[in-house]
Amino acid sequence: MEQDTEKQSKKYELSFLSKEEGGKEVLLQWINRFGGEVVLEGPVENIVLSYPIEKQTSANFGFVHFNMAPDQAAELSKELKTAGIFLRFLVITPPSVKTNKPRASSSKSGPAEALPVVSAERKPVSDTLSNEDLEKKIEEILQQQ
């Protein structure tokens, strides 16, 4: 049964605004209690709120990435709503990150070779052009056509 729970677990990100400094520690305890595995802990910063929330003008903002079964994540969200320490929180599934892996070669000779990187040479740009120089350059270009 334990393997079924691990197979069903999904990645989540939970960002929060807490009234107190120990909000992240409380959150980590709740995640562990609901069987989650913390993957990444972001820093907690005290920020000034754009508008008061529950008469608070500042809060501690942080985020945590964790793995958890979807039904447990829903239960965690319900419990956090009743916790008085959090002003706001948001649980999302973070977007998947695409990696640029070389495509497999259709031939049987081996792995695909990486294409060479070609960089365009840039001519140094002069600091400033006078109006007269600019007009001469425009005339030259028009005459070439």
Task: Give structural notes.
This protein has helices at residues 2-8, 23-33, 70-82, 131-144; strands at 10-18, 37-41, 45-53, 56-68, 86-92. The protein is α+β, with helices and mostly antiparallel strands and 145 residues long. The chain has a domain at 2-92: Ribosomal protein S6/Translation elongation factor EF1B (Alpha-Beta Plaits, 2-Layer Sandwich). Strands 1, 2, 3, 4 and 5 form a five-stranded antiparallel β-sheet that branches. Strand 3 and strand 4 form a beta hairpin. The relative contact order is 0.18. The mean pLDDT is 81.
**Helix fraction?**
25-40%
Residue share in β-strands: 25-35%
Task: Return the CATH topology of the domain at 2-92.
Answer: Alpha-Beta Plaits
Number of strands: 5
Topology:
Elements lengths: L1 H7 L1 E9 L4 H11 L3 E5 L3 E9 L2 E13 L1 H13 L3 E7 L38 H14 L1
Antiparallel strand pairs: 1-4, 1-5, 2-4, 3-4
Question: Which descriptors apply to this entry?
Answer:
alpha+beta; 30% strand; Alpha-Beta Plaits; 4 helices; 31% helix; 145 residues; single chain; five-stranded antiparallel β-sheet
Sum this structure up briefly:
This protein has helices spanning 2-8, 23-33, 70-82, 131-144; strands spanning 10-18, 37-41, 45-53, 56-68, 86-92. With 145 residues, it is of the alpha+beta class.
